[in-house]
Amino acid sequence: MPRASKISTLWIVVMFNMVFADILSFMSPEFLTQVASGTVEGVRITPLFLLVAAGFIEIAILMIYLTRALSPRASRRANLLAVVVTILFVVGGGSLKPHYMFFAGVEVIILLYIACLAWLWQGNIQEDIRA
After folding, report:
1. How far, in Å, CA of 9 to CA of 103, rounded?
2. I need a surface site. Which of 22, 35, 51, 93 has the fewest CB within 10 A?
């Protein structure tokens, strides 16, 4: 599989993990009570908070496309930056609930693999032909 396709697909896996971590959180009665109150784990849910969270999530969404659309050199740089930002978002904005920690652990492992693939990406046509 060409490297850009592999990395792009891994971003899809990261996104599914993010979505299902949140879906399972909503199945927790105490979480729903907190959401209804407007404060989750001590964090006030405001329109600005939601906008910032949406921005962080959008990075991973855009990387699915940008990994394939950008030149190999630009894609490599964008992926390395996006991995760092996304790991900080996943770890810093996370929960200590077991299901979330499981998903976050999987996400971080995949993100580190994306970083490794991007770091080693030479970006030449021969690499994609051999893949």
Report:
1. 17
2. 51
d(CA 29, CA 68): 40
For 94-106, the pLDDT digits (tens) are 788 899 999 999 9
Q: Could you give the CA distance from residue 125 to residue 103 in angstroms, rounded to a whole number?
A: 35
Query: Under a CB-based contact definition with an 8 Å cutoff, are residues 6 and 113 in contact?
Result: no
Task: Report how far residue 96's alpha carbon sits from residue 131's, in angstroms, rounded to the nearest whole number.
Answer: 39
Residues 6 or more apart whose CB falls under 8 angstroms from that of 118 comprise 7, 75, 76, 79, 80, 83
The tokens for 123 are 């970006």
Inter-residue contact 110 to 14 (CB < 8 Å): yes
Segment 26-84, tens digit of pLDDT: 898 888 888 889 888 888 999 999 999 999 999 999 999 999 999 999 999 999 999 99
Rounded Cα–Cα distance for residues 51 and 41 (Å): 18
Read off the tokens for 111: 């993100």
